[in-house]
Design a protein that fits this description.
single chain; alpha+beta; 8-stranded mixed β-barrel; 17 strands; 41% strand
Length: 280
């Protein structure tokens, strides 16, 4: 394997017991795909990011779940940005990912390192009726459980997510789904996660993200889905931009996370957060 170091971190939190754990491997050259998949599987986190230098503050980055390569991952990018900030200082790092270059701006304030990624251009489309019906059946939800003010959509900001908005917080709290059935649908439709949200206030959301295609029942913080949601809300006219969202995720899992989503009037969506090392 190429020479490098593997770091265990958790993103979108300042508490090692919160956030979404991610592996971050930084080395002098990118390992083989087979090696990266093996490392990610052995680590067991929802994603591990692998970085190798190109020039200056530019890096190549790839992401692997325990089961497969993932085109883009938000929380591992935030963890990588914080790690780069700690080792190489604040500034903007250009990460060349499979979906395009992701700028990550790293800042420090009173010892706290914060990373902000800017997604590729988001897009969305209405979710097809048969896809929604199958997703609801797998989740054990009814059509009446959905919030009609946020129609079901397929949203993209690096990878595709099915967005379903719950009408009540109780519906979101009770998540007991058919893993295999939802996994099949997601593989058929190329969804990375299902973004389940409840709009607590105009700019505050509660979120849960089933991730069976990655071999994970639920993700405690999903930066890619947060970016996709922000782009969908803006471009569908469901939110006046510019705006800033607070997305709370992972609380029902005992790993509370806070994702800050800055939505400009146009262009990529900015998702920011902190990250800390996990105990050895």
């Amino acid at each position: 394997m190429a020479s490098g170091s593997l770091h265990r971190m958790t993103a979108f939190t300042q508490d090692p017991l919160g956030g979404n754990p991610a592996g971050v491997w930084i080395g002098d050259e990118m390992p083989s795909s087979e090696t990266m998949l093996t490392v990610a599987a052995e680590l067991g986190f929802s994603e591990t990011a692998f970085l190798a230098p190109t020039s200056g503050r530019a890096r190549t980055i790839r992401y692997f779940s325990p089961m497969a390569e993932v085109p883009f991952c938000g929380h591992a990018t935030i963890a990588a940005g914080v790690l780069l900030g700690k080792s190489e200082g604040p500034g903007t790092y250009e990460l060349a990912s499979p979906v395009g270059t992701i700028p990550v701006a790293v800042t420090t304030n009173n010892g706290e390192v914060r990373a902000a990624l800017t997604s590729v251009e988001p897009r969305h489309e209405p979710a097809r009726a048969e896809v929604v019906a199958e997703a609801l059946a797998a989740l054990g939800w009814a059509t009446a459980d959905l919030d009609p003010t946020i129609p079901a959509a397929a949203a993209f900001a690096g990878n595709w997510h099915l967005v379903l908005a719950a009408a009540t917080p109780r519906r979101l709290e009770n998540l007991d789904y058919d893993f295999d059935r939802l996994q099949r649908l997601m593989l058929d439709e190329d969804f990375t996660t299902v973004q389940l949200v409840w709009r607590q206030a105009e700019h505050t959301f509660q979120s849960r993200n089933p991730f069976p295609v990655g071999g994970i029942v639920e993700d405690p913080a999903t930066g890619a889905a947060a970016a996709a949601l922000g782009g969908y809300l803006r471009d569908a006219g469901l939110l006046a931009a510019p705006a800033t969202l607070a997305i709370h995720q992972g609380e029902t899992m005992g790993r509370p996370s806070l994702l800050t989503v800055d939505i400009p009037a146009e262009g990529g969506i900015v998702v920011s957060g902190t990250a800390v090392d996990l105990p050895a």
